Amino acid sequence: MEVVVVVVVVVKVVSVVFVVVVVVVVEVVVVVVVVVVVVVVVVEVVVVVVVVVVVVVVVVVVVVVEVVVVVVVVAVVVVVVVEVVVVAAAAEVVAVVVVVVVVVVVVVVVVVVVVVVVVVTAATTTTAAVLEAVIVVLIVVCYVISEHCLL
Predict the structure, then answer these.
(1) Cα-flanking dihedrals φ and ψ of residue 126, to 5°?
(2) Cα gap 23→29, rounded to integer Å
(3) Model pLDDT for residues 96-119, shown as the tens digit of each residue
(4) Which of 143, 113, 142 is nearest to 130 (CA)?
(5) What keywords were assigned to this record (predicted)?
(6) Do residues 14 and 21 lie in contact, with contact meaning Cβ atoms separated by under 8 Å?
(7) Which strand (E) or helix (H) includes residue 38?
């Protein structure tokens, strides 16, 4: 009888120890999972903040570049108009009309391209660099055309 009591006590002690060990392991796993979830949430918040900052910086840079391009286009138009006035004073009427028509067409094309670029760039910043390059090329072409037409 005493052997049975000892066996029952040992079985009870082992089962209690087993239950305590299982509970402790489960609690440790739960704590680890909570820590991992908190770390993931913090990382996601940091990523969102970084993305927002990068987008704001890109938009500001694109707007600044667009303003610079518009200023350059206005400067080219002013130069072309001044050249037309100078040529008009010294040239024949037909040559002046041709130059004025070419300059007007070039200015209209540049203005239309700038408006399209501003609208498209406002809609998407991924193609801003290509569009800005197109504007620069158009400005150079306009300047070359104005120089050749006025010679």
Answers:
(1) -70, -30
(2) 10
(3) 666 677 777 777 777 777 777 666
(4) 113
(5) Membrane, Transmembrane, Transmembrane helix
(6) no
(7) helix 2-90
Domain that holds residue 59: 2-150
Q: Which of 147, 135, 146 is nearest to 101 (CA)?
A: 146
Helix (H, G, I), strand (E, B) or coil at 92: coil
What is the count of structural domains for the chain? 1
Task: Provide the 10 A C-beta neighbour count for residue 143.
Answer: 15
Residue among 115, 146, 144 at smallest CA distance from 131: 115
Question: Identity (one letter) of the amino acid at 149?
Answer: C
The residues, ordered by sequence, that sit 6+ positions from 35 with a Cβ below 8 Å of its Cβ are: none
Rounded distance between C-alpha atoms, residue 112 and residue 135, angstroms: 11
Contact 121, 128 (CB under 8 A): yes
Q: State how far the Cα of 92 lies from the Cα of 99, in Å rounded to an integer.
A: 11
Q: Which amino acid is at 74?
A: V
The tokens describing 82, both together, are: 């001044």
- Euclidean distance between the first and the last CA atom of the chain, given in angstroms as a whole number: 125
What pLDDT score was predicted for residue 88?
A: 59
Is residue 151 helix, strand or coil?
Answer: coil
Q: What is the CA radius of gyration of the chain?
A: 38
